[in-house]
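FW: tagging you since you asked about this chain on Friday. Here's the raw sequence from the shared folder, copied in full. Didn't touch anything.
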Amino acid sequence: MSQHRSLRAIATTGGKRNVLKRFERVGLLKKRNQWKEGDRITGLRKTKPDA
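HL: got it, structure written out here
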């Protein structure tokens, strides 16, 4: 019996995620110099993950 592909864990499928966690978005914005220490962590700009 097979399992539907949407039910598999991301690690096993190697899928790309479109929605990032807040700490991931802050890290990415820091890397792009669009966020610095002391800035708000709420209301972050939309952030697309690197390809």
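FW: The radius of gyration is 15 Å.
HL: agreed, and The longest helix spans residues 22-31.
FW: great, closing this out.
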